[in-house]
Amino acid sequence: MGKSHSKNPVLTEPWRTINWDNNQDNLWFLNNYKPQLEGQTLRILLYGPAGAGKSSFINSVQSVLLGRPYSQALADNTGHDSFTTEYTTHKIQKVDGSLCSFVFNDIMGLSTHKGVLEEDVALALKGHIKEGYTFDQDTPLSEDSEFYNTSPSPNDKVQVLVCVIPADNISIMDDELLQKIRRIRLVATKLNIAQVTILTKIDALFPEIQRDVRNVYRFLEIKEKMLKVNAYVGIPMNCMFPVRNYHEEINMQMDFDTLILSAMKHIIQYGDDFLKFSQRRLKS
Length: 284
Prior knowledge:
Layout: H1 23-32, E1 42-47, H2 54-66, E2 88-93, E3 99-106, H3 118-125, E4 160-166, H4 175-190, E5 194-200, H5 207-211, H6 220-233, E6 240-242, H7 254-283
Parallel strand pairs: 1-3, 1-4, 4-5, 5-6
Antiparallel strand pairs: 2-3
Helix pairs in contact: 1-7, 2-7, 3-4
């Protein structure tokens, strides 16, 4: 593969291929996905550093489904403390007003000294946290709290754990934060929960990506960022997806949609695999 001679070499051939003209098929998949189990909803829990773009990703998915910019999850782009403080379920609406068969849960961001407690993330994975619980950065949710769900149903439990990491800050994430991510991963692994990583803020890395998001897989540094995440927290490369969230645009961008739809299709497929595995295990 040849390279350009710019400061940030651009490959003539992408290191990962993606169908940039497949939006309608992927959009159809998201709109029509239904778990095999009647009444089941696929629950996707987002976690990661404060300011990584968890809420923005939820808003971006909803925007793509509606075909217009939409803000459901309150987001903050300062990147300091977590803007999300409550355990909130975000239902995703289709153009016709009906709801998708998957939901997102947004939680307080991880931080070195503050942020959501690992114990609370573990409780959320198991379905023990009720809607509206305000996260306490010092004390985990107790079993005697009105927000503790003593008997979680299958729909209360998480099927996909998505780690949202800002591509422009991977190198400066300290070891304590990375250890927290690893420990949360281990809890999810023991629960056989599917795991995916979303790499946000890719446009902050190179002006070439800001100008044309199709360049995302033409930069080896994007691949190197993903390899670092793989080395730090162990998520396989084929479970990592760079995206460009909507945050300043007032019009939809087809190529932004492509990355978001591609990531979401994989997230749903991995989650559905988890549901099928769980059903087989219950029958055996």
